[in-house]
Write a structure and sequence with these properties.
Layout lengths: L9 E3 H6 L1 H11 L1 E6 L2 E7 L4 H5 L7 H5 L5 H4 L18
Parallel strand pairs: 1-2
Antiparallel strand pairs: 2-3
């Protein structure tokens, strides 16, 4: 890679190992950059300005609200949930 290459949001692990400064510049520009290993995402490089937002807890929510699923049942879920089929494979001795 050279300095005239355009910055991207995704780099291979080989490109990252060869020239980490390019990935660093891309993270500063875009906020985050994905590193892939054989086409599979394996690492995210995040700009330092975004790091506190990712690790500091949001104190505006109660513990119950933060653990509760954010689903409104009447709008997001359509139909009935599938019934569980449980097969019991044992014998009862009398």
């Amino acid at each position: 890679m050279t300095a005239i290459d355009t910055l991207r949001r995704e780099y291979s692990a080989r490109e990252f190992n060869r020239d980490p400064s390019v990935v660093s510049r891309a993270a500063h520009q875009f906020g985050s950059v994905r590193i892939t290993n054989r086409g599979v995402p394996s690492l995210i490089v995040v700009d330092a300005s975004q790091h506190p937002e990712l690790v500091e807890p949001d104190h505006s929510l109660s513990l119950l609200d933060s653990l509760a699923p954010q689903v409104t049942w009447d709008e997001d879920i359509v139909g009935e949930p599938p019934r569980a089929r449980i097969a019991l494979d044992f014998e009862v001795e009398a």
